[in-house]
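User: Some background: our group keeps a shared notebook of sequences we're curious about, and every so often someone picks one and asks for a predicted structure to add to the entry. Today it's my turn. The entry only has the sequence so far, pasted here. Could you supply the structure so I can complete it?
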Amino acid sequence: MPNFTGLFEDIKRNYESLENSLKTITTAYQKTILFFDNFFSWIPPEVILLFIFSVLLLILINNLSPSTPRANLTFSVGLLCLIWVYLNKSITSEYKIFWVFKTSLYVLIPVYCFSIFGFILQYLIKIYKRKQKVSASSLEEYVAKLESAYHSARGAAHQVIAGEVESEELQIRLKNLSTLSENFQSMLKK
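Assistant: Of course. Here's the predicted structure to add to the notebook entry:
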């Protein structure tokens, strides 16, 4: 009898394990379905199809003209939309131009937004670099300040030699000259 009891316990454990596995698979399946329901409530499934076919067509068109990828994408989406409208008219006998246009915008707007963002970013970088460049007027100002500090330190050195002032005055003016020189060098390194 103990053999049958052990056999039934093994069957029961296997059944419970199988039941847990099926519950896990069912839960994962339900979560996946819920995700796709939410996803396709925001983005129509036609957009995914249009995107896939436009990428395939874009690969072919980019082999012919690789220098204009945005124009090629616009052309491929437009061509696919025309084919879509024609097939829709052939099958259902009605035009859904607004729906097709709206679907094409789902594909084209992000592409052009990224392009516009790239142009704006390049423009801002260009402005930033232009401001960072040393202008001739600021260069002349620094040279004039350095020249003035040098003459001041030189005059103080002559006064110290003549015994008219203390050496601390010369040290202050030399520190001023040194500071201006370091600032000038750092400005030139930018």
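Suggested note for the entry: The chain has two domains: 2-132, 136-189. The chain has a mean pLDDT of 86.
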